[in-house]
């Protein structure tokens, strides 16, 4: 059975929403990668009784706990005091910690305030965690069931202490085997539709299925136990990918590569040694922005007014067949820019319709390649910024499908 971990964040600014608790998310990801089960994230303000009560609860129910914040020199930094009172471990001066704090200030040619001495007092029986990047040393101790680690709330310091000290201590004290996370990253389909596509697939025992929806993609996550055979993982992922079909643009294993849509496109464009020219309307320059700095992007143009676009490219606008207009624009664009590929994205409706979040627009995408024409058509709704992003993604997804040989 996996050891149970908790994350405990301290600070009134976190409880009040003035500071986003990014530490907890970062720590959770690291703990899960090591093989722990993270059961709770808890945030407590600067209240001594609340801190003591929570510490006692965690000591009884968790195998380990990472506590962040409350180690500073001011009166509202109460973590060490709370630990001392909760577990009957009086604070004691750690001479080495004090020298490290003094050295921190002397190296910066600054006088150490008397209040900083407070940071050198650690609970009796705790082990100091040296902090070479700030004034607050961390410390660890075991109380009842739980092995506690107390580290600063400053993210840069917290991360350094975890990476240099805490993670190694966790691996010494616990027998853990990390799970394997495989993420199938999808585009052009909603979360509920993805689940429907997987509804007839029998999920293997002990494998956890999850979904995560974002602005640019929807992720299907498969979490395999650490003792799962590699071949079984491969077979399971292949079955899931087969159910999801062409909506999957990349499969990330281990949760480490995290390649986005443009990363996948860039890799394939470099392999094929192709160049691309782009003409966009509804996306309003967002395609170019998403592909900023890519060497294969030869030329980009953004035109809000179709009339000026038609005049520039010497094409006729066919309001009854916008796809035909997009094809004519693509041919002219490819000829003028001399690129292997030309991507054109147009939309129906006037600017008033684009700005009205109650009204949808139709997106028309055309990709002209040396051998063929490829099309896609989508509806985009919501606020203008959502329509803009949908327009850019739909056009880029057409390019991705061509590069992955998934165009019909």
UniProtKB/TrEMBL annotation:
CDD domains: cinA (cd00885). It comes from the Bacteria. SUPFAM superfamilies: Molybdenum cofactor biosynthesis proteins. Residues 6-173 form the MoaB/Mog domain. Signal peptide: none annotated. InterPro entries: CinA, CinA_KH, Competence-induced_CinA, MoaB/Mog-like_dom_sf, MoaB/Mog_dom. NCBIfam families: cinA_nterm, molyb_syn. This is CinA family nicotinamide mononucleotide deamidase-related protein. It comes from Methylomarinum roseum.
């Amino acid at each position: 059975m996996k050891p149970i971990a908790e994350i405990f964040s301290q600070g009134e600014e976190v409880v009040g929403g003035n500071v986003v608790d990014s530490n907890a998310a970062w720590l959770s990801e690291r703990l899960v990668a090591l093989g722990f089960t993270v059961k709770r994230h808890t945030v407590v303000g600067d209240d001594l009784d609340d801190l003591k009560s929570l510490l006692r609860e965690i000591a009884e129910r968790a195998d380990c706990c990472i506590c962040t914040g409350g180690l500073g020199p001011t009166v509202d930094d109460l973590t060490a005091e709370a630990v001392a009172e909760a577990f009957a471990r009086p604070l004691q001066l750690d001479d080495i910690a004090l020298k490290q704090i003094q050295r921190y200030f002397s190296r910066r040619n600054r006088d150490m305030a008397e209040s900083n001495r407070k940071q050198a007092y650690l609970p009796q029986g705790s082990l100091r965690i040296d902090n070479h990047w700030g004034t607050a040393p961390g410390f660890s101790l075991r109380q009842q069931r739980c092995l506690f680690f107390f580290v600063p709330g400053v993210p840069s310091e917290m991360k350094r202490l975890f990476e240099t000290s805490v993670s190694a201590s966790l691996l010494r004290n616990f027998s853990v085997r990390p799970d394997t996370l495989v993420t199938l990253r999808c585009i052009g389909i909603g979360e509920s539709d993805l689940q429907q596509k997987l509804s007839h697939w029998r999920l293997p025992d002990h494998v956890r299925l999850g979904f995560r929806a974002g602005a640019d993609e929807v992720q299907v996550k498969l979490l395999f136990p650490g003792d799962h055979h590699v071949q079984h993982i491969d077979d399971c992922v292949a079955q899931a990918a087969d159910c999801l079909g062409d909506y999957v643009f990349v499969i990330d294993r281990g949760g480490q590569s995290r390649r986005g849509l443009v990363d996948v496109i860039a890799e394939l464009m470099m392999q094929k040694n192709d160049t691309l020219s782009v003409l966009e309307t509804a996306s309003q320059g967002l395609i170019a922005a998403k592909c900023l700095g890519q060497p294969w992007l030869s030329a980009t143009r953004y035109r809000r007014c179709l009339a000026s676009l038609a005049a520039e490219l010497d094409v006729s606008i066919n309001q009854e067949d916008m796809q035909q207009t997009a094809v004519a624009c693509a041919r002219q664009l490819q000829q003028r820019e001399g690129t292997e590929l030309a991507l054109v994205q147009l939309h129906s409706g006037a600017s008033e319709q684009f700005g009205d979040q109650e009204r949808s627009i139709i997106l028309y995408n055309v990709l002209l390649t040396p051998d063929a024409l490829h099309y896609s058509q989508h509806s985009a709704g919501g606020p203008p910024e959502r329509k803009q992003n949908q327009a850019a993604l739909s056009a880029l997804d057409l390019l991705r499908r061509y590069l992955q040989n998934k165009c019909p």
